[in-house]
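Note to self: keep these together.
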Amino acid sequence: MRPRAGCCAMAGSGMRLYACFGNGLGRAAEIAPSDEDALSLIDRALAHGDEHVIKFTEACLGRDARDSSPVYRAAAAHVLSAIGRR
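Structure:
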């Protein structure tokens, strides 16, 4: 396995766990889709300034582009409010 592929696989696993259990909801079907589009989430992540928030948002949106699900944009939107700004 290439090193980058391994990192992407780990990030994807972390996103799925966070999306399912990070906000107290147990199933993806119970998560309401975010009203925000990808560009809005990117702008908010960059304005937030925390590198972890930016990377998490990037990973969520990348995964959403490959395998669309409301959990990815919802997780990105949630992390923007859950982690304090710098």
